[in-house]
Design brief:
3-stranded antiparallel β-sheet; elongated; 11 strands; Rossmann fold; single chain; CoA-Trfase_III_dom3_sf; 14% strand; formyl-coa transferase, domain 3; 6-stranded parallel β-sheet; Crotonobetainyl-CoA:carnitine CoA-transferase CaiB-like acyl-CoA transferase; CoA-Trfase_fam_III; CoA-Trfase_III_dom_1_sf
Length: 360
């Protein structure tokens, strides 16, 4: 869908590289501009010659190394921008301007450029000078307050939610700007903040709190009721039950021959509730695999909580081809059409210098 669109990517680590990976999956040509020492996430992991995160986020891209503090290389970067449709950078606010590749610099060489700055707190004055990481963005957005253990302590997620959602948000903004450019011919400057990107996940919570004082959003989605809960299985694994609608709750009850539960749809997930105690015992009577099979046979919004290795083998992802294997390495893909996607491994540093030297 983006064939013929060129993206110049002045970013490193995770969020913005995920943005440009998504654009590459849509067919865009992505040229990753790196310092002479390369993206720090290149540092080898295990037996691989590149870091795991770099391998995952930089396939289907080209690499050219430029020292933006040197005039000749800065001019080369501007020539690349002049040939491009989109520029993305992930420096702290103001750094790209000081390096001579900021939005105003880009406009001088490409009058209809789409320029995206992706940072932790955005370009406004309040916190633009501060560094941050995924955990900080989740904390200040309020999202971390909604992820607590049974003792009320916020848990540390095992994935970088703000980084990935920020990357997705940036790609969404860029695609919107492309539509606007097609209609008007106008350039766009996009100031995308990782913290702002996860704030919409709190939109229900913020509205509800303003009206009721309730801090935890939609109550029935927070583990309050037996129909929407995480249950432990016989083998110490877990399944998620999300039978909010009556039809799914009925399917669940009939599937287990537990008609006596039909009237207990929204009873409390409390140890004082005998239905809850009985349900926990039923879930503990079968293994994860048994419940996984049940979930495919009975339409009741039940799903096993899979570990990473199990996700790769799940029939859903096999059928949709969102996970593929190249040379023994598993990758995820962004697919919106049935067209076959090309694959190239994450590039070596400056691998495409000769190819791009005319543009440089």
């Amino acid at each position: 869908m983006l064939k013929g669109i060129r993206v110049i990517d002045f970013s490193q680590y995770l969020p913005a590289p995920h943005t440009t990976l998504r654009l590459a999956d849509l067919g865009a040509e992505v040229i990753k501009v790196e310092s002479p020492t390369g993206d720090p996430s290149r540092a080898p992991s295990g037996k691989e010659d590149m870091g795991y995160v770099f391998l995952a986020q930089n396939r289907n891209k080209k690499s050219v190394a430029l020292n933006l503090k040197e005039e000749a290389d800065r001019d080369a970067a501007l020539q690349l921008i002049a040939s491009a449709d989109i520029v993305i950078e992930s420096y702290r606010p103001g750094v790209a301007d000081r390096l001579g590749i900021g939005y105003e610099d880009a406009l001088k060489v490409k009058k209809d450029i789409i320029y995206c700055s992706l940072s932790g707190y955005g370009g406004t004055e309040v916190m633009r000078h501060l560094g941050g990481h995924d955990l900080n963005y989740l904390a200040i957005s309020g999202l971390l307050s909604q992820l607590k253990d049974e003792n009320g302590r916020p848990i540390q997620p095992g994935t970088q939610l703000a980084d990935f959602i920020g990357g997705i948000t940036a790609s969404e903004a860029i695609l919107g700007a492309l539509v606007n450019k097609e209609r008007t011919g106008e350039p766009s400057y996009l100031d995308v903040s990782l913290t702002d990107s996860v704030l919409p996940l709190m939109s229900n919570h913020i509205l509800i709190e303003s009206l009721t004082g309730e801090q935890n959003g939609v109550a029935k989605l927070g583990g309050k009721h037996v129909c929407y809960f995480i249950y432990e299985t016989k083998d110490g694994r877990y399944v998620s039950l999300g039978a909010l609608e009556l039809k799914f709750w009925r399917n669940f009850c009939y599937g287990l021959h537990k008609e006596s539960w039909l009237t207990e749809h929204y009873s409390l997930a409390s140890d004082e509730n005998p239905i809850f105690t009985e349900m926990k015992a039923v879930f503990a009577s079968r293994t994860l695999d048994e419940w996984a099979q049940f979930s495919l046979e009975v339409d009741c919004c039940l799903a096993p909580i899979l570990e990473t290795a199990e996700v790769v083998k799940h029939p859903l992802f096999k059928s949709r081809q969102f996970i593929f294997n190249e040379e023994g390495v598993n990758y995820t893909s962004t697919r919106f059409t049935e067209e076959a996607q090309e694959f190239t491994r994450a590039p070596q540093l400056d691998q495409h210098a000769n190819e791009l030297k005319q543009t440089k």
